[in-house]
């Protein structure tokens, strides 16, 4: 990836720019992010051995739902994104909530060149399936984390079940997400994620599934159920 051709899909940026005003509405198109945020935070906090006082980078922070949650749990948080409108919403909400988060509009690869080995924890959640080159994002995350630090990733598995649930179900039948949110061809198999992590010099230490129950409309973490949404923990040796 060159500076002249950043690792971004302009259509994806426009999509989330258009929805930015609704980012903090828990009943909006971002309801799923609000619903799963406590699970994501618990997973990261446990995997990181606590967050208090740690410097954390949230890659693809959008409107700041995860970033603010990390800060509320004691982390010193930097959130980065390439979308202008979501970052404006994140800044406005930060002023309202009083939660301290630093936001920057910068590509993760550019930040890795600027601040290598600067963070105790790097999170990249629900972003990899929206960029042209997810391996480049993972490599940048690996450069940004300090030796011994943790990188937390989440994405969607490229399976028929994921297509049925995440696209047909969530986008078209249940209306949980806007139509066109996901492109099945960009879903990532765990083996692919693991290979990119190894190439980046990371050690993959754990994977767990994120499972939705349509009857109770609740989510839970489920080890071994990686066939739709899943989270991964990596460490930089």
Structure summarized in a few sentences:
With 237 residues, the chain is α/β, with parallel strands linked by helices. It has helices at 10-18, 31-48, 65-72, 84-97, 108-114, 134-144, 160-173, 190-199; strands at residues 55-59, 76-81, 101-105, 119-125, 145-156, 203-213, 218-222, 229-235.
Question: What would you say this structure looks like, in words?
Answer:
With 237 residues, the protein is of the alpha/beta class. The protein has one domain (10-235): Rossmann fold, CATH 3.40.50.150. The protein is built from eight helices and eight strands, in the order H-H-E-H-E-H-E-H-E-H-E-H-H-E-E-E. It has helices at 10-18, 31-48, 65-72, 84-97, 108-114, 134-144, 160-173, 190-199, and strands at residues 55-59, 76-81, 101-105, 119-125, 145-156, 203-213, 218-222, 229-235. Strands 3-2-1-4-5-8-6-7 form an eight-stranded mixed beta sheet. Strand 6 (203-213) and strand 7 form a beta hairpin. Helix 5 runs parallel beside helix 6 and helix 6 packs across helix 8 (190-199). The two termini are 25 Å apart. 43% of the residues are buried. The model is unreliable at 1-5 (pLDDT under 50).
Q: Compute the number of helices.
A: 8
Q: How do the strands line up in the largest sheet?
A: 3-2-1-4-5-8-6-7
Q: For the residues shown, what is the average pLDDT?
A: 91
Gyration radius, in Å = 16 Å
In total, the number of domains comes to 1
Assigned CATH superfamily: Vaccinia Virus protein VP39
Coarse structural class: alpha/beta
Q: Main beta sheet: strand number and arrangement?
A: 8 strands, mixed
Amino- and carboxy-terminal Cα gap:
25 Å
Shape: globular
Report the portion of residues in β strands.
Answer: 15-25%
Helix content: 25-40%
Low-confidence region ranges: 1-5
Number of strands: 8
EC number: 2.1.1.222, 2.1.1.64
Organism: Caldichromatium japonicum
Keywords: Methyltransferase, S-adenosyl-L-methionine, Transferase, Ubiquinone biosynthesis
Catalytic activity: a 3-(all-trans-polyprenyl)benzene-1,2-diol + S-adenosyl-L-methionine = a 2-methoxy-6-(all-trans-polyprenyl)phenol + S-adenosyl-L-homocysteine + H(+); a 3-demethylubiquinol + S-adenosyl-L-methionine = a ubiquinol + S-adenosyl-L-homocysteine + H(+)
């Amino acid at each position: 990836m060159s500076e002249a051709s950043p690792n971004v899909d302009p259509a994806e940026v426009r999509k989330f720019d258009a929805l930015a005003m609704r980012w903090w509405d828990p009943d909006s198109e971002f309801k799923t992010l609000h619903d799963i945020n406590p699970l994501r935070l618990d997973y990261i906090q446990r995997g990181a051995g606590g967050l208090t006082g740690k410097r954390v980078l949230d890659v693809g922070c959008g409107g700041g739902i995860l970033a603010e949650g990390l800060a509320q749990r004691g982390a010193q948080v930097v959130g980065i994104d390439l979308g202008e409108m979501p970052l404006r919403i994140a800044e406005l909400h930060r002023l309202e909530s009083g939660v301290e988060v630093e936001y920057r509009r910068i590509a993760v690869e550019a930040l890795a060149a600027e601040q290598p080995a600067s963070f105790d924890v790097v999170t990249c959640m629900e972003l990899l399936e929206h960029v042209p080159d997810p391996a480049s994002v993972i490599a940048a995350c690996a450069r940004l984390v300090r030796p011994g630090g943790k990188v937390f990733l989440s994405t969607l598995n490229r399976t028929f079940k994921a297509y049925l649930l995440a696209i047909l179900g969530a986008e078209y039948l249940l209306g949980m997400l806007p139509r066109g949110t996901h492109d099945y061809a960009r879903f990532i198999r765990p083996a692919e994620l693991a290979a990119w992590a190894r190439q980046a010099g990371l050690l993959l230490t754990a994977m767990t599934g994120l499972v939705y129950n349509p009857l109770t409309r609740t989510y839970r973490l489920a080890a071994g159920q990686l066939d739709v949404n899943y989270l991964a923990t990596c460490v930089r040796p």
